[in-house]
Amino acid sequence: MSPPSTKAQDPTAVSNPGSVTGKLSTWIHDTTIDAIPPEVLTRAKYLILDGIACGLVASHLPWSEIAARAVFKMEPAGQCTVIGWGKQKKLSPLAAAILNSTFIQGFELDDYHSTAPLHSCSILIPALFAAVEADPSQTFSGKDFLRAFVVGCEVGPRVGLALHGTDLLSRGWHSGAVQGPSASAAAVSSLLSLPPGYIESALGIACTQAGGLMSAQFGSMAKRMQHGFASRNGLFAALLAQEGYTGIKDVYETPYGGFLSMFTEGVTNFSPKSLPDELIKGLGEIWELHGIRVKLHAAMAALHGTIDCIEKLQKQHPALFSTEKLSEIEKVTTQHSKPAFEHGGWTAPRNEPLTPTAAQMSIQYAAAAQLVDHEVLMAQFGADKLNRPLLRELMDKIQPVHNSEFDSDKKKGWTTVVTVRFKDGTEVDTSVAGPKGITPPASDDDVVQKWRMLVRDVLDENRRDQIEKCVLELEKLTDVKDLVQLLEGAVKCPIAV
């Protein structure tokens, strides 16, 4: 046996340039703003605008205020902005990141990736804002921010694809909380221009903090915060690595205790269990940012197909679906792929009041709300709307089912079929291949319309226009702190509580 080498490794270099982790770390370091196609940068700005809208509108929801009060009590004042809470309410970078992420995820209105589920803006924007404000002596331009945001958008989904996309979700992991620390660490590492070896350490530190249980969706306020854990953990990892603190090497592909090996424990439906090359496949050529979708309903993405199907039926058969006729509905059957069914097809307890979190995760609730209100937006999840007798009666008649035919082809994964049977024997049905925002994706104009609709009651027009201009011309910004300062002013709660 040869004696161990006494030569110290250069900490700025990756441990194994040929490994998946090494190649990913090197790409994160080497990617410049000029290497990113203009259309990717443009779409990134609209995604950032959507994320900011979600953060502002949810910053004073009841559950957001509870989280904020708790964090303000346990954490000392710091230098980082808390969206919508005023100039006097500032926190340390880690605390600000977790709260701002909790806000962006606060109303199930934020983006999601269509094939490797995570909510990129709730992970990346808070971590990057906190990193921008962490050191007052440093200045980051809009171009720096854009580059880092795009890098994060590329890494997060690829981690999910290496774990077979939606499989994490089907097995009960909160996929975004598992994939998210890598995305956050990658984005902040890019912003800080860390060398490749430090980026490898940041990813290793981030991955050892990954986790999140999907049972949080059944009423727990913690569901809103789990992407915040990911945002904070990746930020923490990158800031540690910046100081030379080392992390796990080759963290993704290490067999014993590695990220992919551990998060595929118990997998029996795929061979191989993980796909490490998905982490680096097409880097710089295939842009996963294009797979990020913007929600047009205020509910978990797997519910959107049901909402759209019922909306189609309401338009096709207005007389059948009038308010007076709703009591004549005997049964509603909704068909879904396994991930959608497992995520949203649970049966709500009849004698327990629904919480907003549970309602936003329930196919039954989404279908009933669309039947009654002809929309599923913020108002449908206010305290005055959640447990209306007519709505709860309809929920009892709604039966989500798993259609295995939708699992065999990835193109069918978003397919939803809804059948409504009335007491007189009349039956109508319809389907969608994918909900609005999925097929086709929301346009840039749709994003702007959504932004203005969401902030209509929480921002004055002047502040709204300043933020909009700042984000959509982000590449012209010399200091991102100027944008962050526009977000600190206090806002009000947009729903009845």
From TrEMBL:
Q: Which SUPFAM superfamilies does its entry note?
A: 2-methylcitrate dehydratase PrpD
Q: Name one Pfam family in it.
A: MmgE_PrpD_N
Record-level Gene Ontology MF annotations: lyase activity
- Annotated ranges, domain MmgE/PrpD C-terminal: 297-473
UniProt cross-references to Gene3D superfamilies, sorted A to Z: 2-methylcitrate dehydratase PrpD
Annotated MmgE/PrpD N-terminal domain ranges read 23-265
Q: What family is it from?
A: Belongs to the PrpD family.
The protein depicted here goes by the name Immune-responsive protein
Species name for this entry? Cladophialophora chaetospira
The organism's lineage is: Eukaryota, Fungi, Dikarya, Ascomycota, Pezizomycotina
